[in-house]
Write a structure and sequence with these properties.
- By secondary structure, the chain is α/β, with parallel strands linked by helices.
- The chain has a single domain, classed as Rossmann fold (3-Layer(aba) Sandwich), CATH 3.40.50.
- The chain has 8 helices and 9 strands.
- Strands 3-2-4-5-1-8-9 form a 7-stranded mixed β-sheet. The chain has a two-stranded parallel sheet with strand order 6-7.
- α3 crosses α5.
Amino acid sequence: MRLFLSSYRFGADPAPLLSLVGRPGRVGVIAAAADAWPRTARTSAVVSDVMPLTRLGFTPEEVDLRDYIGSDGHARPAALRERLAEFGMLWVRGGNTFVLRAQMARSGADRVIPDLLLSDSLVYAGYSAGACVMTPTLHGLDSSDDPAEVVATCGMEPLWDGLGVVGFAIVPHHPPAELPGAEDAVPLEDAAAVRRTVTALRLAGIEYRTLTDDQAIVVNGDRTELV
């Protein structure tokens, strides 16, 4: 199993991701965490991820999970599995973690992706929401992500469990604590929301790991490390 879970894109250095992948090739870009956004904003978000991936030598192609939800509302996991098997890596961008989780459930991605990871068929690279969804729980993330967007966007109640691929919660966009005035260094989240998430996890007794925007968690087989 190979995972690259970051707070923001490649973190400080893309080298650990490239080492995990080997030779860059086709990558499936999943932007479901942005499905509640206006169309132009979502399109812009996809482009903003495709460009840096392309510069690293990857060939990105969007995989829209909405295409794998049947007209009857049922998931199409077989079709999704066939599509995802074309790639050596999945790139799952940030946005609303609850919307991403719901779209994964509606499309069957929450079953297909863990299966592909267990067989080591591909690398999973996810940042922010894309990292958080791989954990056991989304508890506390409502401090920064609005669960109410799920009903409007996905037509279902929000799910609070993650995919459980790793055994700990992740708190992204954490200020680098050793720096004076570090809270000013958090460009993508309100630092108070990050603190509320940490507090909620502590009170619930849930194991968690924080990530600054320069950090990532790399899982390679039975080895997990912070880079």
